[in-house]
Write a structure and sequence with these properties.
The complex is a heterodimer of chains A (about 220) and B (about 140). Chain A is an alpha/beta fold. Chain A has two domains: about 120 residues, 3-Layer(aba) Sandwich (Rossmann fold), CATH 3.40.50; about 60 residues, no CATH class. Chain A has seven helices and nine strands, in the order βαβααβαβαβββαββα. By secondary structure, chain B is α/β, with parallel strands linked by helices. Chain B has one domain: Rossmann fold, CATH 3.40.50. In chain B, strand 1, helix 1 and strand 2 form a beta-alpha-beta unit. In chain B, helix 1 packs across helix 4. Chain B is globular and about 35 Å long. The chains are: A alpha/beta (about 220), B alpha/beta (about 140). The interface between A and B is medium-sized, with 15 and 16 residues.
Protein backbone atom coordinates (compact mmCIF):
# COMPACT_ATOMS: atom_id res chain seq x y z
CA UNK A 1 0.00 0.00 0.00
CA UNK A 2 0.96 3.63 -0.26
CA UNK A 3 1.99 4.91 3.15
CA UNK A 4 1.40 8.53 4.08
CA UNK A 5 1.46 10.78 7.14
CA UNK A 6 -0.56 13.83 8.06
CA UNK A 7 1.24 17.11 7.51
CA UNK A 8 1.95 19.18 10.63
CA UNK A 9 -1.19 21.08 11.71
CA UNK A 10 0.67 24.38 11.39
CA UNK A 11 1.22 23.77 7.69
CA UNK A 12 -2.36 22.61 7.09
CA UNK A 13 -3.82 25.55 9.00
CA UNK A 14 -1.72 28.07 7.10
CA UNK A 15 -2.84 26.56 3.76
CA UNK A 16 -6.53 26.90 4.63
CA UNK A 17 -6.27 30.26 6.43
CA UNK A 18 -8.56 32.05 3.99
CA UNK A 19 -11.06 29.22 3.50
CA UNK A 20 -14.38 29.25 5.32
CA UNK A 21 -16.03 26.21 3.77
CA UNK A 22 -13.80 23.17 3.73
CA UNK A 23 -14.51 19.68 2.46
CA UNK A 24 -12.21 17.27 4.28
CA UNK A 25 -12.09 14.31 1.93
CA UNK A 26 -10.57 11.01 2.99
CA UNK A 27 -9.78 7.91 0.96
CA UNK A 28 -10.89 4.43 1.99
CA UNK A 29 -7.95 2.86 0.19
CA UNK A 30 -4.31 2.92 1.23
CA UNK A 31 -4.47 5.94 3.52
CA UNK A 32 -7.22 4.30 5.58
CA UNK A 33 -5.08 1.20 6.02
CA UNK A 34 -2.04 3.25 7.06
CA UNK A 35 -4.24 5.27 9.47
CA UNK A 36 -3.44 8.60 7.83
CA UNK A 37 -6.49 9.56 5.80
CA UNK A 38 -9.47 7.30 6.50
CA UNK A 39 -12.84 8.31 7.95
CA UNK A 40 -11.40 8.41 11.50
CA UNK A 41 -8.56 10.71 10.54
CA UNK A 42 -10.93 12.87 8.50
CA UNK A 43 -13.07 13.36 11.60
CA UNK A 44 -9.96 14.11 13.67
CA UNK A 45 -8.61 16.70 11.24
CA UNK A 46 -11.98 18.40 10.71
CA UNK A 47 -12.46 18.64 14.48
CA UNK A 48 -9.00 20.14 14.94
CA UNK A 49 -9.68 22.71 12.21
CA UNK A 50 -12.97 23.72 13.85
CA UNK A 51 -11.33 23.86 17.28
CA UNK A 52 -8.54 26.05 15.91
CA UNK A 53 -11.02 28.46 14.38
CA UNK A 54 -13.09 28.59 17.57
CA UNK A 55 -9.96 29.56 19.48
CA UNK A 56 -9.56 32.47 17.11
CA UNK A 57 -13.20 33.41 17.56
CA UNK A 58 -14.11 32.68 13.96
CA UNK A 59 -16.17 29.92 12.45
CA UNK A 60 -15.60 27.48 9.66
CA UNK A 61 -17.94 25.12 7.90
CA UNK A 62 -16.53 21.64 7.42
CA UNK A 63 -17.94 18.58 5.76
CA UNK A 64 -16.35 15.20 6.42
CA UNK A 65 -16.50 12.64 3.63
CA UNK A 66 -14.50 9.74 2.23
CA UNK A 67 -14.20 8.19 -1.21
CA UNK A 68 -13.80 4.55 -2.00
CA UNK A 69 -10.57 5.27 -3.89
CA UNK A 70 -9.61 8.88 -4.50
CA UNK A 71 -7.20 7.93 -7.30
CA UNK A 72 -10.16 6.65 -9.37
CA UNK A 73 -12.07 9.34 -11.28
CA UNK A 74 -15.20 7.14 -11.15
CA UNK A 75 -15.00 7.15 -7.38
CA UNK A 76 -14.51 10.90 -6.84
CA UNK A 77 -16.75 12.07 -9.69
CA UNK A 78 -20.29 11.37 -8.43
CA UNK A 79 -19.62 12.78 -4.93
CA UNK A 80 -17.73 15.88 -6.00
CA UNK A 81 -20.10 16.76 -8.84
CA UNK A 82 -22.68 17.46 -6.14
CA UNK A 83 -20.35 19.05 -3.61
CA UNK A 84 -17.33 20.65 -5.26
CA UNK A 85 -18.83 24.10 -5.92
CA UNK A 86 -20.17 24.40 -2.36
CA UNK A 87 -16.70 24.59 -0.81
CA UNK A 88 -13.77 27.01 -0.95
CA UNK A 89 -11.28 24.21 -0.57
CA UNK A 90 -11.11 20.44 -0.77
CA UNK A 91 -8.61 19.21 1.78
CA UNK A 92 -7.61 15.80 0.51
CA UNK A 93 -6.47 13.08 2.87
CA UNK A 94 -5.44 10.75 0.05
CA UNK A 95 -1.99 10.18 -1.44
CA UNK A 96 -0.58 12.50 -4.11
CA UNK A 97 -2.38 10.46 -6.79
CA UNK A 98 -5.72 11.10 -5.07
CA UNK A 99 -5.13 14.85 -4.87
CA UNK A 100 -4.18 15.01 -8.54
CA UNK A 101 -7.16 12.90 -9.62
CA UNK A 102 -9.46 15.55 -8.13
CA UNK A 103 -7.37 18.32 -9.69
CA UNK A 104 -7.71 16.72 -13.12
CA UNK A 105 -11.44 16.00 -12.82
CA UNK A 106 -12.34 19.37 -11.29
CA UNK A 107 -10.01 22.01 -12.71
CA UNK A 108 -11.90 24.92 -11.12
CA UNK A 109 -11.72 23.60 -7.58
CA UNK A 110 -8.91 24.43 -5.14
CA UNK A 111 -7.53 21.15 -3.82
CA UNK A 112 -4.95 20.96 -1.04
CA UNK A 113 -3.03 17.97 0.33
CA UNK A 114 -3.36 17.24 4.03
CA UNK A 115 -0.90 14.35 3.84
CA UNK A 116 2.69 13.79 2.87
CA UNK A 117 2.94 10.65 0.72
CA UNK A 118 5.95 8.73 1.97
CA UNK A 119 6.46 5.33 0.34
CA UNK A 120 5.09 1.98 -0.80
CA UNK A 121 5.23 -0.13 2.30
CA UNK A 122 3.82 -2.89 4.44
CA UNK A 123 2.56 -3.00 8.00
CA UNK A 124 5.07 -4.59 10.37
CA UNK A 125 2.48 -4.36 13.15
CA UNK A 126 -0.36 -1.99 13.96
CA UNK A 127 1.17 1.48 13.82
CA UNK A 128 4.48 0.46 12.22
CA UNK A 129 5.04 0.60 8.46
CA UNK A 130 8.22 0.00 6.50
CA UNK A 131 9.18 0.77 2.93
CA UNK A 132 9.47 -2.37 0.82
CA UNK A 133 9.12 -1.29 -2.81
CA UNK A 134 10.49 1.62 -4.83
CA UNK A 135 8.35 0.92 -7.93
CA UNK A 136 11.48 0.32 -10.03
CA UNK A 137 9.41 -1.07 -12.91
CA UNK A 138 11.58 -4.18 -13.31
CA UNK A 139 10.79 -6.46 -10.37
CA UNK A 140 13.64 -8.63 -9.12
CA UNK A 141 11.85 -10.39 -6.26
CA UNK A 142 11.68 -13.66 -8.21
CA UNK A 143 15.44 -14.10 -7.98
CA UNK A 144 16.11 -12.40 -4.65
CA UNK A 145 13.99 -14.68 -2.48
CA UNK A 146 11.22 -12.10 -2.27
CA UNK A 147 13.42 -9.50 -0.57
CA UNK A 148 13.92 -6.29 -2.53
CA UNK A 149 17.53 -5.07 -2.77
CA UNK A 150 16.35 -1.97 -4.65
CA UNK A 151 14.50 -0.81 -1.54
CA UNK A 152 16.38 -2.40 1.29
CA UNK A 153 20.00 -2.15 0.13
CA UNK A 154 21.31 1.38 0.64
CA UNK A 155 23.47 1.03 -2.48
CA UNK A 156 20.81 -0.82 -4.50
CA UNK A 157 23.35 -3.54 -5.22
CA UNK A 158 22.12 -6.40 -7.38
CA UNK A 159 24.93 -8.93 -7.06
CA UNK A 160 25.47 -9.54 -3.36
CA UNK A 161 26.53 -7.70 -0.23
CA UNK A 162 29.19 -5.00 -0.14
CA UNK A 163 32.05 -4.71 2.32
CA UNK A 164 29.87 -2.65 4.61
CA UNK A 165 27.75 -5.65 5.59
CA UNK A 166 28.65 -6.61 9.16
CA UNK A 167 26.97 -9.28 11.26
CA UNK A 168 23.85 -9.02 9.11
CA UNK A 169 23.58 -5.25 9.46
CA UNK A 170 24.16 -2.46 6.97
CA UNK A 171 26.95 0.02 7.54
CA UNK A 172 24.50 2.93 7.38
CA UNK A 173 22.87 1.94 10.68
CA UNK A 174 22.96 -0.91 13.12
CA UNK A 175 19.15 -0.89 12.97
CA UNK A 176 19.10 -1.63 9.23
CA UNK A 177 19.39 -5.23 8.10
CA UNK A 178 21.73 -5.98 5.22
CA UNK A 179 19.30 -6.83 2.42
CA UNK A 180 21.78 -9.21 0.82
CA UNK A 181 22.33 -11.06 4.08
CA UNK A 182 18.55 -11.53 4.26
CA UNK A 183 18.44 -12.67 0.63
CA UNK A 184 21.25 -15.20 1.07
CA UNK A 185 19.82 -16.49 4.36
CA UNK A 186 16.41 -16.98 2.78
CA UNK A 187 17.74 -18.60 -0.40
CA UNK A 188 19.76 -20.96 1.81
CA UNK A 189 16.65 -21.86 3.79
CA UNK A 190 14.75 -22.50 0.56
CA UNK A 191 17.65 -24.58 -0.82
CA UNK A 192 17.88 -22.30 -3.85
CA UNK A 193 21.21 -20.55 -3.34
CA UNK A 194 22.28 -21.58 -6.87
CA UNK A 195 19.87 -18.93 -8.21
CA UNK A 196 22.59 -16.37 -7.46
CA UNK A 197 24.98 -18.09 -9.86
CA UNK A 198 22.79 -17.35 -12.86
CA UNK A 199 23.92 -14.47 -15.07
CA UNK A 200 21.20 -11.93 -15.76
CA UNK A 201 21.14 -9.09 -18.28
CA UNK A 202 21.80 -5.61 -16.95
CA UNK A 203 18.79 -4.26 -15.09
CA UNK A 204 16.53 -1.96 -17.06
CA UNK A 205 17.01 1.18 -14.97
CA UNK A 206 15.02 3.22 -17.47
CA UNK A 207 11.82 1.60 -16.16
CA UNK A 208 12.31 3.08 -12.70
CA UNK A 209 11.78 6.39 -11.03
CA UNK A 210 14.83 7.95 -12.65
CA UNK A 211 12.91 8.62 -15.84
CA UNK A 212 10.06 11.03 -16.54
CA UNK A 213 6.43 10.35 -15.71
CA UNK A 214 5.36 6.88 -16.78
CA UNK A 215 2.17 5.80 -18.47
CA UNK A 216 0.67 2.38 -19.04
CA UNK A 217 -1.89 1.95 -21.79
CA UNK A 218 -3.85 -1.29 -22.05
CA UNK A 219 -5.39 -1.42 -25.50
CA UNK A 220 -7.83 -4.12 -24.43
CA UNK A 221 -9.27 -1.87 -21.72
CA UNK A 222 -9.35 1.51 -23.40
CA UNK A 223 -12.41 2.63 -25.32
CA UNK B 1 -12.69 34.17 36.00
CA UNK B 2 -13.00 33.72 39.79
CA UNK B 3 -16.44 32.23 39.34
CA UNK B 4 -15.19 29.85 36.69
CA UNK B 5 -16.56 26.37 37.20
CA UNK B 6 -14.87 23.91 34.86
CA UNK B 7 -16.87 21.35 32.98
CA UNK B 8 -14.96 18.09 32.82
CA UNK B 9 -15.85 14.96 30.87
CA UNK B 10 -14.70 11.67 32.39
CA UNK B 11 -14.53 8.51 30.33
CA UNK B 12 -14.86 5.94 33.03
CA UNK B 13 -14.26 2.20 32.77
CA UNK B 14 -17.17 -0.03 33.80
CA UNK B 15 -14.95 -2.47 35.65
CA UNK B 16 -12.78 -0.14 37.72
CA UNK B 17 -13.21 3.59 37.90
CA UNK B 18 -17.00 3.54 37.44
CA UNK B 19 -17.19 1.06 40.32
CA UNK B 20 -14.81 3.36 42.23
CA UNK B 21 -17.23 6.24 41.59
CA UNK B 22 -20.04 4.06 42.95
CA UNK B 23 -17.95 3.30 46.02
CA UNK B 24 -17.18 6.98 46.52
CA UNK B 25 -20.89 7.65 46.42
CA UNK B 26 -21.90 4.87 48.78
CA UNK B 27 -19.05 5.86 51.12
CA UNK B 28 -20.38 9.44 51.13
CA UNK B 29 -17.07 10.80 49.88
CA UNK B 30 -17.51 14.29 48.47
CA UNK B 31 -16.05 15.28 45.13
CA UNK B 32 -16.55 18.36 42.93
CA UNK B 33 -19.75 18.44 40.88
CA UNK B 34 -17.79 19.61 37.85
CA UNK B 35 -17.28 16.18 36.37
CA UNK B 36 -19.65 14.42 33.99
CA UNK B 37 -19.05 10.69 33.99
CA UNK B 38 -19.45 8.74 30.76
CA UNK B 39 -19.47 5.01 31.41
CA UNK B 40 -17.66 2.89 28.85
CA UNK B 41 -17.06 -0.88 28.71
CA UNK B 42 -13.27 -0.39 28.67
CA UNK B 43 -11.01 2.63 28.29
CA UNK B 44 -9.65 0.88 25.19
CA UNK B 45 -12.93 1.98 23.56
CA UNK B 46 -12.01 5.65 23.89
CA UNK B 47 -10.72 7.03 20.63
CA UNK B 48 -8.94 10.33 20.08
CA UNK B 49 -12.08 11.57 18.35
CA UNK B 50 -14.16 11.02 21.52
CA UNK B 51 -11.73 13.21 23.45
CA UNK B 52 -11.62 15.93 20.79
CA UNK B 53 -15.40 15.89 20.42
CA UNK B 54 -15.86 16.39 24.16
CA UNK B 55 -13.57 19.43 24.07
CA UNK B 56 -15.21 20.79 20.94
CA UNK B 57 -18.66 20.41 22.49
CA UNK B 58 -17.77 22.51 25.51
CA UNK B 59 -15.72 20.50 28.00
CA UNK B 60 -12.89 22.49 29.59
CA UNK B 61 -11.04 19.27 30.33
CA UNK B 62 -11.32 15.56 29.68
CA UNK B 63 -9.87 12.64 31.54
CA UNK B 64 -9.92 8.94 31.00
CA UNK B 65 -10.07 6.80 34.13
CA UNK B 66 -9.10 3.18 33.60
CA UNK B 67 -8.05 0.14 35.56
CA UNK B 68 -4.73 -0.04 37.35
CA UNK B 69 -1.90 -0.86 34.98
CA UNK B 70 -1.77 -4.60 34.41
CA UNK B 71 -5.33 -5.23 35.63
CA UNK B 72 -7.45 -4.30 32.61
CA UNK B 73 -10.43 -6.63 32.24
CA UNK B 74 -9.64 -6.75 28.51
CA UNK B 75 -5.90 -7.13 29.16
CA UNK B 76 -4.54 -4.03 27.41
CA UNK B 77 -7.38 -1.52 26.99
CA UNK B 78 -5.99 0.91 29.55
CA UNK B 79 -2.55 0.90 27.91
CA UNK B 80 -4.17 1.68 24.56
CA UNK B 81 -6.10 4.50 26.21
CA UNK B 82 -2.89 5.85 27.74
CA UNK B 83 -1.26 6.01 24.28
CA UNK B 84 -4.33 7.66 22.78
CA UNK B 85 -4.49 10.24 25.56
CA UNK B 86 -0.85 11.08 24.85
CA UNK B 87 -1.66 11.37 21.14
CA UNK B 88 -4.62 13.65 21.93
CA UNK B 89 -2.30 15.82 24.05
CA UNK B 90 0.09 16.10 21.09
CA UNK B 91 -2.79 17.13 18.83
CA UNK B 92 -3.86 19.84 21.28
CA UNK B 93 -0.29 21.16 21.36
CA UNK B 94 -0.36 21.31 17.56
CA UNK B 95 -3.31 23.72 17.67
CA UNK B 96 -1.84 25.68 20.61
CA UNK B 97 -4.21 24.36 23.27
CA UNK B 98 -2.92 23.29 26.68
CA UNK B 99 -2.25 19.53 26.61
CA UNK B 100 -2.93 19.40 30.36
CA UNK B 101 -6.63 19.64 29.56
CA UNK B 102 -6.51 15.92 28.77
CA UNK B 103 -5.28 13.41 31.33
CA UNK B 104 -5.18 9.68 31.98
CA UNK B 105 -5.69 8.16 35.43
CA UNK B 106 -5.60 4.61 36.70
CA UNK B 107 -7.54 3.27 39.68
CA UNK B 108 -9.09 0.07 40.99
CA UNK B 109 -12.74 -0.56 41.83
CA UNK B 110 -11.81 -0.40 45.53
CA UNK B 111 -10.41 3.13 45.32
CA UNK B 112 -13.44 5.34 45.90
CA UNK B 113 -11.27 7.88 47.70
CA UNK B 114 -8.86 8.00 44.75
CA UNK B 115 -11.75 8.62 42.37
CA UNK B 116 -12.74 11.63 44.49
CA UNK B 117 -9.14 12.85 44.75
CA UNK B 118 -8.64 12.59 40.99
CA UNK B 119 -11.86 14.55 40.41
CA UNK B 120 -10.59 17.25 42.80
CA UNK B 121 -7.11 17.28 41.25
CA UNK B 122 -8.43 17.57 37.70
CA UNK B 123 -10.93 20.26 38.67
CA UNK B 124 -8.13 22.26 40.27
CA UNK B 125 -5.85 21.77 37.24
CA UNK B 126 -8.53 23.02 34.86
CA UNK B 127 -9.53 25.85 37.21
CA UNK B 128 -5.92 27.05 37.10
CA UNK B 129 -5.78 26.72 33.31
CA UNK B 130 -8.98 28.72 32.98
CA UNK B 131 -11.87 28.21 30.61
CA UNK B 132 -11.35 26.35 27.37
CA UNK B 133 -10.01 28.65 24.66
CA UNK B 134 -12.84 27.36 22.49
CA UNK B 135 -14.99 29.67 24.63
CA UNK B 136 -18.14 27.60 24.99
CA UNK B 137 -18.47 27.12 28.76
CA UNK B 138 -21.00 29.75 29.87
CA UNK B 139 -20.62 29.09 33.59
CA UNK B 140 -17.97 31.79 34.14
Amino acid sequence: MIVAERKPMEEILSMIEDANRILVLGCRGCTTVCCAGGPKEVQELATLIRMNRKQKGTTVETLEASNELQCEPQSVGPLLEKLADQFDVILSMACGAGVQTIVKSFPDVRVLPALNTNFIGMAEEHGVWTEVCVACGDCLLGRTAGICPMTRCAKQLLNGPCGGSMKGKCEISKDVDCAWQLIIDRLTRLGRLEVLEEIYPVKDWSAGWHRGPQKIVREDLTS
Amino acid sequence: MNNFEPLIAVFSCHYCSYAAADLAGSSRIQYPPNIRVIKIPCTGRVSVNHILKALECGADGVYVAGCLEGTCHFISGNFKAKQRVQYAKNLLSEINMEPERVQMYFMSAAEGAKFANVAKEMTETIRELGPSPLGQNKSE
